[in-house]
């Protein structure tokens, strides 16, 4: 059956459902069911020498260059007060910059993930907590860009690693909203790059499946070869704490850094451990930690610097400035890059 035939059949199914569902529900179905042709472009595999050249070019463009690469690990739904008391997260915090006044932007999860990579949630949070986690496929136009655009245009690269991403044909259209496994559930709302048709159509090979039960999965292989400039890592919903606890999430992060991305592989890489949102504390304050040889140890950090008010937009602006990239929106443009923590 052709792509056009699939689309026609799905539209007919949605219309047929109109008798039984509300208009809002029909819109949600239409948004989540999107057919996009798979990218035919081969995955870009760059040699270590080319990656060093990328880093050199980025350093030349930047006015505040601190790291060659960044890896962002996003955990789920824990208040700062709970996270900082976790023994594993607290132990990691002794080796970097643990911010004491860092805040998520919205509730629920999905708008925060979008803001991390696009500098805006495109108004998704205005749907309210019940409906704002419904995924959208944003059109490929000038109003819907992500940091992927800036990186590619600058000759850099990005990857989104997603634990338990369903096996199948890129871009995993209909089946990928929520897939439950014993290892831990996958949900697409935690993989923000998949919300952009541009990524689906052009760069879908940068969205990488990680089988968390395999010791030599695709992330481990990439880490041994050298990560690209920007990596976003989405644990499954057991590992990120969403379906479990902060104790499970903290233990998973420690094991991940010990086994999958040990210190010997992290040279030049800034590791950011953050949460999407709080569990419900009054001001959406969350735990966020910067780790890497470019970051001062906790004993050398200034508490006043760590207590500055930061959000996900400040992290995005810091990455943009590091790689000499133009801000995406007024939100990240207005946000100050994080300073005072670097060696």
Task: Tell me what you see in this structure.
Helix content is about 35%, strand content about 15%. It is of the alpha/beta class and about 350 residues long. It has two domains: about 1-35, no CATH class; about 45-335, Alkaline Phosphatase, subunit A, CATH 3.40.720. Helix 5 (about 85-95) packs across helix 10 (about 245-260) and helix 6 (about 110-120) packs parallel to helix 12.
Straight-line N-to-C gap: 58 Å
Low-confidence stretches: 1-44
What is the name of the CATH architecture of the largest domain?
A: 3-Layer(aba) Sandwich
Integer count of domains:
2
The strand line-up of the biggest sheet is 2-10-9-1-8-4-7
Assembly category: single chain
CATH class placement of the largest domain: Alpha Beta
- Give the SSE string: HHHEHHEEHHEEEHEHEHEEHEHH
User: How many helices?
Assistant: 13
The shape, in one word, is globular
CATH topology of the largest domain: Alkaline Phosphatase, subunit A
Strand tally: 11
* Radius of gyration, whole Å: 20 Å
Strand-residue proportion? 5-15%
Report the helical percentage.
25-40%
Largest sheet: 7 strands, mixed
Q: Given the helix and strand composition, which structural class is it?
A: alpha/beta
Average pLDDT works out at: 87
Mind telling me the CATH superfamily name of the largest domain?
A: Alkaline Phosphatase, subunit A
């Amino acid at each position: 059956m052709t792509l056009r035939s699939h689309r026609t059949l799905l539209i007919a199914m949605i219309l047929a459902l109109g008798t039984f569902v509300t208009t809002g529900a029909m819109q949600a179905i239409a948004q989540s069911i999107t057919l996009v042709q798979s990218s035919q472009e081969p995955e870009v595999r760059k040699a270590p020498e080319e990656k060093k050249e990328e880093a050199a070019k980025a350093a030349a463009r930047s006015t505040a260059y601190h790291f060659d690469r960044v890896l962002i690990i996003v955990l789920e739904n824990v208040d700062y007060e709970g996270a900082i008391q976790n023994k594993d997260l607290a132990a990691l915090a002794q080796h970097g910059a643990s911010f004491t006044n860092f805040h998520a932007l919205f509730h629920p999860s999905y708008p925060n993930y979008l803001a991390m990579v696009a500098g805006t949630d495109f108004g998704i949070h205005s749907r309210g907590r019940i409906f704002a986690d419904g995924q959208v496929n944003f059109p490929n136009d000038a109003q819907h860009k992500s940091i992927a655009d800036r990186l590619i245009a600058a000759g850099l690269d990005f990857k989104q690693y997603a634990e338990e991403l369903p096996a199948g044909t890129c871009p995993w259209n209909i089946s990928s909203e929520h897939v439950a496994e014993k290892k831990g559930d996958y949900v697409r709302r935690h993989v923000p790059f998949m919300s952009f048709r541009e990524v689906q159509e052009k760069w879908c090979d940068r969205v990488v499946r990680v089988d968390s039960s395999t010791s030599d999965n695709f992330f481990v292989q990439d880490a041994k070869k050298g990560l690209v400039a920007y990596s976003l890592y989405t644990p499954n919903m057991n590992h990120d704490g969403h379906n479990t606890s902060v104790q499970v999430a903290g233990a998973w992060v420690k094991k991940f850094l010990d086994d999958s991305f040990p210190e010997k592989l992290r040279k030049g890489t800034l590791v950011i451990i953050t949460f999407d949102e709080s569990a419900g504390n009054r001001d959406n304050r969350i735990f966020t930690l910067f780790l890497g040889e470019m970051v001062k140890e906790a004993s050398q950090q200034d508490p006043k610097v760590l207590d500055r008010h930061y959000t996900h937009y400040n992290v995005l602006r810091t990455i943009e400035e590091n790689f000499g990239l133009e801000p995406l929106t007024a939100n990240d443009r207005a946000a100050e890059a994080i300073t005072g923590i670097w060696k």
